[in-house]
What we know:
The complex is a heterodimer of chains A (256) and B (303).
Chain A: E1 2-13, E2 18-24, H1 26-31, E3 37-41, E4 52-55, E5 58-60, E6 63-69, H2 73-78, E7 86-93, E8 105-110, H3 114-124, E9 130-136, H4 145-150, E10 155-160, E11 167-168, H5 171-182, E12 186-190, H6 193-203, E13 209-213, E14 229-231, E15 237-239, E16 246-248
Chain B: E1 6-7, E2 12-13, E3 17-19, E4 41-43, E5 60-63, E6 66-69, H1 78-89, E7 96-100, H2 105-116, E8 121-127, H3 144-156, E9 162-165, H4 173-182, E10 187-190, E11 194-197, E12 199-200, E13 205-206, E14 212-216, H5 221-234, E15 239-242, H6 248-256, E16 261-264, H7 267-270, H8 274-288
Parallel strand pairs in B: 3-4, 3-16, 4-7, 7-8, 8-9, 9-10, 10-15, 15-16
Antiparallel strand pairs in B: 1-2, 5-6, 6-14, 11-14, 12-13
Helix pairs in contact in B: 2-3, 3-4, 4-5, 6-8
Amino acid sequence: MQDERGLIEEARSLDGGYYLLKIAAPRIADAAKPGNFVMVRISPSFDPLLRRPFGILESRPPYIWIYYQVLGHGTRRLSALRHGDSLDILGPLGNSFPDMPGKRVLLIAGGRGIVPLFHYAQAYGGRRPLLLLYGGRGQADLQLLDRIKALRLQGLFIFSEDGSLGQKGLLTDGLEKIVREERPDVTLACGPDAMLARLALMLKGRGLENHASLEALMGCGFGACHGCAIRTADGSYRKVCDEGPVFPLEEIQWPT
Amino acid sequence: MADLSADLGFCTLKNPVITASGTFGYGEEFLPFYDLDILGAIVMKGIFRGPRSGNPPPRLHETPAGLLNSIGLAGPGADKLQEIIRRLRAKTSAPIIDNVCGEDDDEFAEVAGIFSGMDEVAMLELNISCPNVKKGGACPAQDPGHTARLVKRVKAGIRKPLVVKLSPNAPDIVGVAQAAQDAGADALSLVNTFLGLAVDLEARKPVFANVYAGLSGPAIKPLALKLVREVCLRAFVPVIGIGGIASGRDVLDYILVGAAAVQIGTINFCEPRAAARIIAEIGMEMDRLQIKSLSEIRGKLQA
């Protein structure tokens, strides 16, 4: 874990309130593994008070890329930062996706859930067979396609609820067919809780190994505050920050 | 160079900065950030006899310069914490303060007895003030009579100094402070979090399952400073000031109203190295203001 002053190299505003930040943070970029996240102090003042967690989209030392959507006060403040501004960044934090040598891996990304899966594909693409199922409400939730197409994927399946891109429907509508025809050994997923809950139901008993990266409100990001608890199937709580953010999909108690 | 030592009567800390319970994990979480030996003391996250899973999420809600939390004293229980404390002792020489919790007086006394027996523990802090344990936020620190009874009982079963942590939600915190010191408390620490409410307008529901949650962070500093001053005006035991501290100047403000030492809390989350920075700032501010020792300004507010 590093505590680093990151310098914003590029801040790009994209459709639908999404942003792409390229940040020079050499020590974090060096250490980052797919699935890790960072805690960003958006302002040295108390506005906002807490750091915000962001997944790492890509790390190519000395840079990391953060892809996020403006959802509240913190991300709105972050979106005002420009080239040359600096940020206090803590990371890389949390666990990472398991390496899957020799396995056929299906990546399942809902909207900005693409972030850690992109990182995984960037790290392992070409070294093992990777497929990506990418879904969102519409085109704005399905960005970065130029970058995604440059990854060495064996298959890319796109679903949009409004039909503006790829096939019309939820990504879970396409899951059954993809699993049947492409025969993955492993799924790695990241997206809204409702999507992950549906995946857990659909993938149960299929003999696949399934992992999901979770999102949570976090106070510290390194295990001290116990604020990011998530309930597991046995009724106990786990901390998303330092026991996750990647968990076996079936270990989580999803809302029914 | 200014003398930062903080006199608690029964012991002297190398400086007044103590990390507050619940905001510093079990100390180990902060080992990657700085040498914990620099701290005045470390307070462990509150502990019950057995393991506790804590409250359902959401557990946090940010407010302007503040943080509402409803963690619910999640923890591994007293047996496991003893192992953790032994492990931490091997990593730092900073005094360790164990924060003692209980669902009832029996449990408080039992947990206090366990940690009183540990050589690695310098003193105990009795957490009679956590608002997140019961629905509605009731706790012994609401009531001077209950506080006196509990402090007397716990004190009788231990042979370590006892700090009693007070709630700002008590109708009469000065009365509770007096009850605690009369019953044998060696020091008082205040404040724990202020009860607050956040609502989800869309859902027309409270954000937290427990309805109310505890507010901390820079937002509460003026409220806490007022209560610390009021208690210091009546207390004959040392007072540890807590609430919204984020700088060396904040620490000196608390000393000026009468605190012997302070605890820093929420800032540990935003800035894991905060304690190290704050300790450095205290020395610089004292040099700048030509203050040679904390005792020179302690309780010297001219009002």
